[in-house]
Amino acid sequence: MKVLAIFVLSMLTAYSQDHSQDRPQRNWNISVAFFVGAQVMDTVSSHGAIETNPILGRGEFGMRQMAIKGGIASGVILAERIIMRKHPDTRRFWTWVNYGTGAAITAVAVRNWNLPPYVPPATLNSIAK
Description:
With 129 residues, this protein is mostly helical. It is built from 5 helices and 2 strands; from the N terminus they run ααββααα.
């Protein structure tokens, strides 16, 4: 799974480099690819574990949490594009916001991978017998 997450991140970065002409736009595209890649890594590392973020909903991380997480990430990117359309001078700010947020989310994904796997309580009872 780690290899898949890294592969997706590298594909997104390569795509963003090829499809832009001017440097500030390309830098923002790369930062969005990094942000999305971090979201993917966090989703892969959280799948099947207990989610502690109340915004995503408590309980086992599943399709519902993935949809909420994807919706929030898409909304952030859409809001950035709308703001930058009206205020192009904020592009550099949003580029660094994406890098910072992506780095923080990547740190959470690494932490998730280092946690012991989740064992449901019902399984614990059958193991103890």
